[in-house]
Amino acid sequence: MSDMISEYLADKDEKWHQPFLKLYQTIDEHIPNGFAFQLQYGMPSYVVPLSTFPDGYHCEKDTPLPFLSIAAQKRHIAVYHMGIYADDDLLSWFEAEYPKHMSTKLNMGKSCIRFTNPKKIPYELLGELASKVTVEGWINRYTTSIR
Fold first, then answer.
1. Surface-to-core class of residue 48, CB atoms within 10 Å of its CB (0-12 exposed, 13-18 middle, 19+ buried)
2. pLDDT in tens, 71-100
3. Where does the YdhG-like domain lie (predicted)?
4. What is the domain-level CATH number for residue 67?
């Protein structure tokens, strides 16, 4: 386990430690090359580094472009995936695939997918979701539709 993950989990409820670690490992194994792993907005995150996209995030020019973050909250584990917020086709794919992996109702906001039961997290599906957008694809989507 990386020092960043250990430090992040230090003040989190023990029930979230193993599921969070498994989620991190799953995403890390599947995310396309080019995304950088760092702490962003207080969460372990995958971002487009400024060396790849010097324009940065429109809200904060000196901030790497966010893509995917994971968080252990008080009542749930969250995956913040900017791609499902920006790409209707990706969102539709995820919403159609979710019931094939889980019997629980999908609990999500615009970019946030929440899991309140640490034993019911579709790791395989989340790994596949993480793999679906490349750095180049995310930059293109961001520059054409988010801005």
1. buried
2. 999 999 999 999 999 999 999 999 999 999
3. 17-130
4. 3.90.1150.200
